[in-house]
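Quarterly update from the structural biology core.
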Amino acid sequence: MRVWIRTPFSTEKNLGKAYNEEMQMIPEGDAACFIDGDLMFLTHDYGNILNDYANLYPNSVLVCRMNRINAKATGQIDQYAPTTSDIADHIKHANSLSSSRAVTRLQMPPVSGALMVVPKSVWNKIKFAEQQPYEDRGPFNLLGVDNDWTNRVRAAGIEILTMEGLYCWHTYRLLTNTNKHLL
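Predicted structure, tokenized:
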């Protein structure tokens, strides 16, 4: 299995549609690693780490540990991560974890979709919603697409696992105290 790293973007603010368009280009038997535009890999071997996990768990959706995410995604918050914004400290932390690739943990809801490894076989069963399932957020699918999709994945009996050996920097709300992730 090969992992194709993608950063979907939609000028229409329809992230579900952008995810689906990217997945259509991924060959059968492979997986996409969707990342937000404000996520950064911190180790030189991040591609090998992603491929190792995807091949160990080819029927699971994978997420990673991060420094800055919504507080509700408690299973992905790395409690041992540096609390400063000094990127060198975060790189050292990421390198210290990268050797533990075989260790995973079942991810409980909710999930931060800042990084999601999605096997094509899972996507073939469960596509991303292209219309916002939450009426109060308007007609487009931008915020909440990750939680809607992962909730449906879980309901279908597919595991969502945290890759304990992959820690990434997420800029999420670094310079502001706003409750809005995307302005």
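The chain has one domain: 3-170.
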